[in-house]
Structure prediction request, 384 residues.
Amino acid sequence: MGLVLALFMAACATSVPPAPRRIPAPAVGEVSLIHSSIEPAQHQLLDIGVVIFDNLPDQFTLPNSPEVNEGVFAEIRQNEAQYLPYVLRNTLIDSNHWGAVRVLPETDPSVDLVITGTIVESDGLALEIEIKAFDSTGLEWINKTYADISQSDDFPASSRFTASNRFDPANFIDPFQDLYDQINNDLISMRDSLSEQELINLRRVSQMVYATELSPESFAQTLEEGPGGLLAVSSLLADDDPMMRRVMDMQLRHHTFIDTVDQYYQALFDEMQPVYVTWRHYSRDQSLENQSAERQIYEGGVYGNAGKFLTLSQRYDRYRWAKIYEFEFAELASGFNNEIAPAILELNRNVHGLDGTMADQYAQWRKILRALFALEVEPSADEN
Prediction:
């Protein structure tokens, strides 16, 4: 122990201030979800697609420890990118202010409003996400960074879930629920700033954007750029038009498919939630431990020069236990990934006979619908 303690003392004597931390966005604070007790008017029931978040892999800072495997933590962040959008999706549904809300692998031309996000920080203690939302006309609804800080009582008293201590999802509130509530409330505020006619026009644009996705040569002329570069409908086909009936039929098939995609993400969310709560709780403790260690190492010169051996010895013990804790943290990370691996596998299994990852299957499906639409249109074109 003498040699290790001497090295530790030397490190304290030559310590430098910790590197300045990135200034985080202000926390949202306590937020109450705006909930509608009655169903909103039809023109307000916009369909929303919440796209899997970007996880900023190049900027992800890992614990400074030889025991930590970078791949393990990158995998956790990748899984988070699929988990966190589902919390937002559930929040939007709980507000009772929107139409269908689905989690999707990429932006979708059939929805009225698309939400994308980038995870800036997520360590159990703090969550910071850059959120953008834009509608089918191209109008930006949100471009903002949301942040929240968790408290110790946001987590179950014991996060070691066993047969006798089961996780209770029905009574669990996400530690960062205020963040998601604020996003929902901001979206409602933006929607309510638009007139009824603007919302009706938005939904018409959505319909023609999807029609153009199916057959650009048939429907591109129905859309034009208006003021500010926003899309507007230049000519709207009647609902009983044969071409529009085919579009609506294809859209119904597509919605059935993306409902299935959303259910797969729900299965992943349900499977991941208990172990993710444990991981977050542990990660929060580790983040607090790291912050404390950084401060103490920097302050080491003060008590080291005073020659207070007892204080130094106590701090060495804390340092030693922190390293043990860090190793356990890395072990938990590996266990987390192993535990949800079956759910990830299931997420990427074939949907309706398609292959590859969920994103691959989604792209294949859109190609199939375009080809099918073209085949169905050809006979009627020949008849005319």
